[in-house]
Design brief:
single chain; binds 6-diazenyl-5-OXO-L-norleucine; 19 helices; seven-stranded antiparallel beta sheet; alpha+beta
């Protein structure tokens, strides 16, 4: 098989690239993100194979997936095994108390399906549930402590979890192995424990105020009163027992039996809203993927209630109106164009997006070529557009959670799935006796008029809370095909709104700039989300000339440590696979040989 040109770079090469001061003409094509783990070089994040590939944000999860491929399982078995495993090793990002989306491509029929197992608002939820008569968040306390930001922290932040039903139903319909087989690795890791790694240790520290408050969480993530440290073992016996129960009985116990009762009891302890009726009536929804075209490629992605796929396609359509042949992927001309395209798409996100089962969402218009041409009429190559052209202004916040898994099996079937508990460790509440970290997905709704969520995102009336409604998401499991429908790539990322920008830029790096996947994933990224009106720029990603030019065009620049954590698999023209995990985080691909 042909392996694309590898960019051989180690930490010193990265420093060299960062420190080079060059003009656009001789600027290196890419400026590469330095691996977050300084002991590894970027090539450690790439694996090639002629068989199957699983790419997840923790090596144990990729390995769990590949074990299924080795047993004769397919991409769905691998993705579900990796999902349960990552629930155990990334409780800060996803888990049985969360939800997600899954995009599936069946090689034999070229049929593409998407499944929505995202959390839904409890039936007792209502548009103004978090605010008092002055429009401020109500004062909610737990054990005498004020729970600030109640859509993010504590029991009232929790929406009805969908992950378990989603994974169990999808695996039952599309997998080849038994549920017990695909869950075995997750059970073993929960039972025996795994060494705490850098990112989880620092996330426990970041969220310790809330993880300490809830005794059920404190007893898992702390040792002798201190947050677990890198290298210590994180053992999750209750979670192992819950996983065992699911492996033996499917999702019934979780939604109708003893697990549901424990979740509801936990809700009652802290003023949460979920009751047994909410649990019993949870439904997975199959939706129709959103599709687009970009210069000879087909794009297939997640439709509303995710905004992700729609905006990736909307932005590609805007970019297609311009000739990018000679544009430099690091130059100010391109970064200005990219930010303006992002600004326009994110303004639409705030205005137009919500759960399509509750409000009308103009997906067809937003993804049409004509609409993109219309939006680009106001694009000015010499000036940044004023975001106020569209509406109000808002603050921001950051987090490192959510996770994405990309799989292609030896038959060419593919899965891309993005899963989350929302902010780091979700609500920080573990349902006592289950080991399950409960989500804080309610924060993805408009919870306060004129406010923004933990990611600084502004949404409108269409995303108001209502019983049974799904909060708007940015999660964008995406696949790229040739114009003949041959699978080229599966990708996705965490990062809240930055998911959309990370997926867009990685896809463009491959489709437009023909970068090898390793380089496409590691090229530095920018992000603009309309409000706040600033381009977020990864540290050291711009040289002085580019920075100065963007400022002179009227942009505001804001530094950010990293944007996204892409997990991607590419299928080369000879059928060989390349898997790449983003060195911004902790992933590593795993491959299964051809049989
Ligand atoms: O669904 C969404 O868009 C968010 N709940 C995702 C949150 C996320 O990616 C957090 N990661 N940094």
């Amino acid at each position: 098989m042909t392996i694309p040109r590898l960019i051989r770079f180690n930490f010193f090469t990265v420093i060299f690239i960062f420190s080079a001061c060059v003009t656009v003409a001789d600027m290196p094509l890419t400026r590469l993100y330095a691996p977050a783990n300084k002991n590894r070089v970027a090539e450690d994040y790439q694996v090639t194979s002629d068989g199957g590939m699983v790419v997840a944000a923790h090596p144990l999860a990729s390995k769990a997936g590949v074990l299924m491929l080795d047993k004769g399982g397919n991409a769905v078995d691998a993705a579900v095994a990796a999902s349960f495993a990552i629930s155990v090793v990334r409780p800060q990002s996803t888990g049985l108390g969360g939800g997600g989306f899954l995009l599936y491509h069946e090689a034999s029929s070229k049929h593409r399906r998407v499944f929505d197992f995202r959390e839904r608002a409890p039936r007792k939820a209502s548009a103004n549930m978090y605010v008092d008569e002055k429009g401020e968040y109500k004062k909610i306390t737990f054990n005498g402590k004020l729970v600030t930001d109640p859509p993010v922290n504590g029991h009232l932040a929790v929406a009805v979890p969908g992950l378990v039903k989603g994974l169990v139903e999808i695996q039952k319909e599309l997998g080849k192995l038994t549920l017990a087989e695909v869950m075995a690795p997750a059970i073993e890791i929960a039972d025996k424990g795994f060494p705490v790694y850098r990112a989880i240790a620092s996330e426990i520290v970041d969220r310790q105020e809330w993880l300490r408050l809830y005794p059920s969480s404190h007893k898992i993530f702390f040792k002798d009163g201190q947050p677990l440290k890198e290298g210590e073992l994180l053992v999750q016996k209750d979670l192992a027992a819950t996983l065992r129960q699911i492996a033996a009985t499917g999702s019934k116990e979780f939604y109708e039996g003893s697990v549901a009762k424990k979740i509801v009891a936990e809700m009652e302890r802290g003023g949460g809203l979920i009751d047994m009726t909410d649990m019993r009536s949870y439904r997975v929804i199959e939706r129709i993927p959103v599709t687009g075209h970009y210069r000879g490629h087909q794009i297939v992605s997640m439709p509303p209630p995710s905004s992700g796929g729609t905006h990736v396609i909307e932005m590609l359509n805007m970019l297609e109106t311009r000739d990018l042949t000679d544009i430099h992927p690091r130059g100010a001309t391109y970064l200005h164009l990219l930010s303006e395209v992002m600004r326009r798409a994110f303004a639409d996100r705030a205005k137009e997006m919500g759960d399509p089962d509750f409000v009308s969402v103009p997906t067809a218009r937003l993804t049409s070529k004509g609409y993109a041409r219309e939006l680009m009429k106001t694009f000015d190559p010499e000036h940044a557009t004023d975001s106020k052209l569209y509406a109000a202004n808002f603050p921001t916040g950051e987090s490192q959670s959510t996770t994405h898994i990309s799989v292609i099996d030896q038959w060419g079937n593919a899965v891309g799935t993005t899963q989350t508990v929302n902010y780091s460790f979700g609500s920080c509440v573990v349902a006592e006796g289950t080991g399950i970290v409960l989500n804080d997905e309610m924060d993805d709704f408009t919870t306060k008029s004129g406010g923004s969520n933990v990611f600084g995102l502004v949404t409108g009336k269409k995303n108001d809370i209502a019983p049974g409604k799904t909060p708007l998401s940015s999660m964008s499991p995406t696949m790229i095909f040739t114009d003949k429908g041959e699978l080229e790539m599966v990708l996705g990322s965490p990062g809240g709104p930055r998911i959309i920008s990370a997926v867009l830029q990685t896809a463009l790096n491959v489709m437009e700039f023909k970068m090898p996947l390793l380089e496409a994933v590691h090229a530095t990224r920018i992000h603009h989300q309309w409000m706040p009106d600033a381009i977020k720029v990864e540290a050291a990603s711009l040289d002085d000339d580019t920075r100065a030019r963007l400022l002179s065009l009227g942009h505001k620049l804001a530094a950010i440590e990293s944007i996204g954590d892409v997990q991607a698999v590419q299928r080369l023209s000879d059928g060989g696979l390349v898997g790449v995990s983003d060195s911004r985080s902790d992933g590593k691909p795993a491959a299964s040989p051809k049989r």
